[in-house]
Amino acid sequence: MTISNAPEASGAKTQGALESALAEFDHAADQLALSPDIRAVLRLPKREWTVNFPVTMDDGHVRVFTGYRVQHNVSRGPAKGGIRFHPATDLDEVRALAMWMTWKCALVNVPFGGAKGGVTVDPRKLSANELQHVTRRFATELQGVIGPEVDIPAPDVGTNAQTMAWIMDTVSMHAGYTVPGVVTGKPVSVGGSEGRADATGMGVMFTAQRALREAGIDMAGASVAVQGFGNVGEAAARLIHKRGGRLVAITDVGGGVANPGGLDPAKLSAHLRETGSIAGAPGTTPIDNETLLALDVDLLVLAALEGQITAANAGAVRAKVIAEGANGPVTPNADPILADHGVVTVPDILCNSGGVIVSYFEWVQNLQSFAWPAAQVADRLEHIIGGAYDEVAAVRARDGIGARLAAHVIAIGRVAEATEIRGLYP
After folding, report:
1. pLDDT > 80? residue 311
2. Residues 6+ apart with CB under 8 A from 298
3. Would you tell me how many other CB atoms lie within 10 Å of the CB of residue 357?
4. Catalytic residue status for 116
5. Of these residues, 116, 125, 186, 267, which one is catalytic?
6. Which fold has domain 41-182?
7. What is the pTM of this model?
């Protein structure tokens, strides 16, 4: 079982991440009647870097890795976006993710632009020593590119708080003093924020709860399937379970588990730590992604990779609500099919924005050298993401459009306004 993109039906065109991101932009730009000049500026990344760097492996041989950093737009503030380590990472994927970050930051109205980065590598095949060397060398290649007032990375697929600590330390060693604000998602012991580890999953839970409520469904007792059990999926599953949601199926990169009576995320996490996957956990039956995506559930959380629901398999989806914990998990050509089947989708730039919201909190705390308690972080997160949810709902009702288009109309409109107000230099 894999979580790669599902194949398209015969005759249907596969939409990659960048193509999906541009299609979403064009749709919103048409709705906003943006001028050709503004479209030209917002459609392309402002800056992008490709670096090839050598690392000495544990056995003494040298391996060359390829890494990327793309800053899509900085009209509203410093660039912000994660760094992913994944074997399928390429420049077009990073371009798409950077664009989505621009819209996400604008939608929740935090003062950042969008960026993204990555290294083409499978981190599971590296030792801890090799992983640290890859991270530190990549951070060195980005010297002068990233910084608290320029571009602030965060964790993404295949990276975590430890990765961010290595980046922060590398940048600090070059600077000659500690630079905690260069990254977010760090361990609390070195300047990270309380609540950051669960922030994206918490935002998924908050927005999914709102969508379920609108559909007349209480999260307590709702049947839930989750694709992906990494940083986002695990936190979302745990927090939904805590609020009474019944987890009936979950998949990760190694397999999947199902139990109609309900799964315990704590037991799955323990099994994952012991074996490297949730597959085969006691008291469960196997399930694959294709089956999970077609389950008749109240809530389907997509927390794996982009392009999971496409025109090929959207017709098989029976969930009442989809919460997009991943970036771009539903392709634009799948949206009308889901809508025709009455599926409500909480779009990615709203649903998974909890991570960048709390990253903003962490950045502010680092600049102030002042820490906030976890309860304050959670309250502020719920307030901001709830406000964004209400704005999307209002535009959706006003214009008679879907939630994804409404979210992009709000976000792209804000970035376009900032671009026009700042003007062109020189």
Report:
1. yes
2. 212, 215, 217, 222, 223, 224, 319, 320, 321
3. 26
4. yes
5. 116
6. Rossmann fold (3.40.50)
7. 0.93
